[in-house]
Design brief:
4 strands, 62% helix, four-stranded antiparallel sheet, 9 helices, alpha+beta
Length: 239
């Protein structure tokens, strides 16, 4: 019985490592991959913000679906196997064979050449089959740690209120940032953005280098954060 449990945990460990490798080959970080794999296999904790990295990626969704089903059915299989083992004392040979196959697969996936081939295959699948709209915002816009995407809310005391972006930002065409659109109520303004006079209640979506965004819009971001914090406090007091 102790040997059986040991073999079972070896199989589970190997399956976890296999899927960590597969998720990593899709571009996910190793530590994020391992946590999400364990979460999906055990059906616990798969509710973090990082789960969007998997839910918003077609290949990862397929791997996740298999892993969740494997976790559910493996529990039933292990309970059934333990019952049979306890009643007949049989099945150890089959379990050893299964463990050997899983360990072999794990070993194959750890070969650098195999990793490169699978990585290239996944990237090719992504390039040819994934629509840009299927990818999460983080993967589309935030290519490195210096990029930022800010949804800037305009309040009455914001410096941008009553001005156009062309007036507020000197030589904006030379800066490493771009205003994607201005949302005014239910209307999204995409034309002549830099000539549009901003009003209280507008939302300006800005993309670019975080350092440049903070330099240009730092005061307005500070006003936004202060006002939003006050609104949250007021709502809590009402509740």
């Amino acid at each position: 019985m102790i040997l059986f449990l040991f073999i079972y945990f070896v199989i589970i460990f190997a399956v976890i490592e296999i899927f960590v490798i597969l998720f990593r080959l899709t571009g996910l970080k190793r530590d994020v991959s391992r946590f999400q794999v364990i979460s999906m296999m055990t059906a616990t904790g798969f509710t973090t913000g990082e789960s969007e990295l998997i839910l918003g990626h077609p290949i990862r969704r397929k791997l996740a679906a298999f892993l969740i089903l494997f976790g559910v059915f493996s529990l039933a299989v292990i309970i059934s196997s333990i019952s049979q083992f306890l009643s007949r004392g049989l099945g150890l040979q089959e379990i050893l064979l299964g463990a050997a196959l899983v360990m072999l697969l794990w070993g194959v996936l750890r070969i650098n050449r195999i990793e490169r081939i699978l990585g290239a295959f996944f990237q090719r699948k992504i390039t040819h089959q994934i629509e840009l709209a299927d990818l999460p915002v983080r993967e589309v816009f935030l290519k490195n740690k210096h990029d930022a995407l800010v949804n800037l809310h305009i309040f009455q005391d914001s410096s941008l209120a009553g001005q156009t972006l062309d007036q507020a930002i000197a030589e904006h065409d030379k800066l490493e940032l771009v205003v994607l659109f201005v949302k005014r109520g239910n209307v999204v303004i995409r034309k002549n953005i830099y000539d549009t006079r901003l009003q209280e209640g507008d939302q300006v979506l800005v993309y670019g280098l975080e350092e440049v965004i903070m330099e240009i819009f730092g005061d307005d971001i500070a006003v936004m954060e202060e006002r939003l914090d006050k609104l949250e406090i007021s709502e809590d007091e009402v509740l």
